[in-house]
Specification:
Blueprint (H helix, E strand, L loop, with lengths): L9 H7 L6 H11 L3 H4 L10 E2 L9 H16 L4 E6 L5 H4 L3 H15 L17 H15 L3 E6 L5 H12 L6 H24 L16 E5 L8 E6 L2 E8 L3 E5 L2 H16 L2 E2 L5 H20 L3
Helix pairs in contact: 4-7, 6-7, 8-9, 9-11
Length: 305
């Protein structure tokens, strides 16, 4: 968002007016607006600047991660022209936030296993664990904002396996979740898959339990049988593109570098051309995909011992 206001900076106006500016001032300007010196001076190089936050076990909180996700989507939704392209490795995390039971489980997994919160290590899973109410409130706000943005999702049927394997793992490894809880989670995963199928069928986004409204943002779903994505997200906002790259499992860094984003955009379009569009058309392929997802959920549920 700061980059959009760069032309208001006094140092920038001095450059445009061909007035002297020191290297230190120029460097501070680039740091403040999170752009590279090469980009600012329109120099061609192989360097790209990304911005983001790193996990710090001492002062980083899960609430901070949720707040940052909400902040980024809110910025994107503020543009009249807005579109998200998502090359998914898993189902979009925004989808999980719509179902309290799945949201609670995913939050628990992320906090316990991937954010290294030591005080969570001995705690068994509860759907209403201490702190869930606040997490759920922010998660639902993220869903509301995300559902205002047109989305193109490039999906692979392996995408649901991450969560299904997590359910199995936490049941089998020390019984961190009970068999009844695991069954509930499998059932709710099927509900989520059914919702994604309905969005694909109607070609628009809406919340679980609700119906599309006039002007609901478009939803395109591609099935790619060859490529398992890496949760790369590219946002078109106005005349600018922003790429968000996933790292350290659930963190992300972002760049507004024009050359990088154009290359990413072209790459995503190339992948889409090699994928099957199953939203709003191609009913046979859509039914085949989602029946396969439901069969996988049923198989894992039945095999739970």
């Amino acid at each position: 968002a700061d980059l959009l206001n760069i032309s208001n900076d006094s140092a920038y106006r001095r450059i445009r007016a061909d007035k002297p500016i020191s290297f230190d001032e120029l460097q501070k300007l680039c740091i403040h607006y999170k752009i590279s010196l090469d980009q600012f001076l329109n120099l061609h190089s192989d360097s790209f600047i990304f911005s983001g936050k790193l996990d710090n076990n001492e002062n980083f909180r899960f609430e901070d991660w949720l707040a940052e996700v909400l902040k980024q989507f809110t910025i994107i939704s503020g543009f009249e022209k807005r579109h998200i392209y998502f090359l998914s490795k898993d189902l979009s995390f925004n989808l999980y936030f719509q179902i309290p039971e799945i949201a609670a489980f995913k939050y628990f997994v992320w906090m316990r296993s991937f954010l290294a919160f030591q005080h969570e290590k001995a705690v068994k899973f509860e759907f209403n664990y201490p702190g869930f109410e606040g997490h759920n409130e922010t998660g639902l706000r993220i869903v509301d904002v995300f559902n205002t943005i047109q989305t193109t999702d490039i999906f692979n049927r392996e995408g649901i396996n991450t969560t299904l394997q997590q359910i199995e793992f936490y049941y089998q490894a020390g019984r961190m979740i009970s068999k009844d809880q695991a069954h509930i989670l499998f059932d709710q995963m099927e509900m989520l898959v059914n919702h994604v199928e309905k969005q694909a069928e109607l070609g628009c986004k809406f919340k679980i339990g609700e119906k599309p409204y006039s002007g609901s943002p478009a939803y395109r779903l591609f099935n790619n049988e060859l490529i398992l994505g890496d949760n790369t997200l590219l946002a078109e906002v106005g005349d600018m593109k922003i790429t968000f790259l996933n790292h350290s499992f659930m963190h992300f860094i972002a760049t507004r570098d024009k050359a990088f984003n154009e290359a990413m955009y072209n790459n995503l379009n190339n992948i889409m051309q090699k994928s099957t569009l199953i939203s709003a058309s191609n009913e046979r392929e859509r039914i085949k995909l989602f029946n396969g997802l439901r069969d996988e959920i049923h198989r894992r549920k039945v095999n739970l011992t």
